[in-house]
Specification:
Blueprint (H helix, E strand, L loop, with lengths): L26 H20 L5 E6 L3 E6 L3
Antiparallel strand pairs: 1-2
Amino acid sequence: MITESLGKLKDADEIFKKIIFTHDMTTEDREDNKRLDNEAKAKEGDDLSGEFLCRVKGSFMVLKIRKRH
């Protein structure tokens, strides 16, 4: 019920807008996530067209996303 209501925080009082929810990760998971984040930044830097963003999503995957204009 709590996670389903997270979207409502953006319309909440100012004090509640500072609340951040993140995934609970082990040390290994955090290291893998950091490695993938660096990999995503490198892929984004390799994109000469500048049309795409690379982000780490979900179960530790790097996604290439087209920028919105």
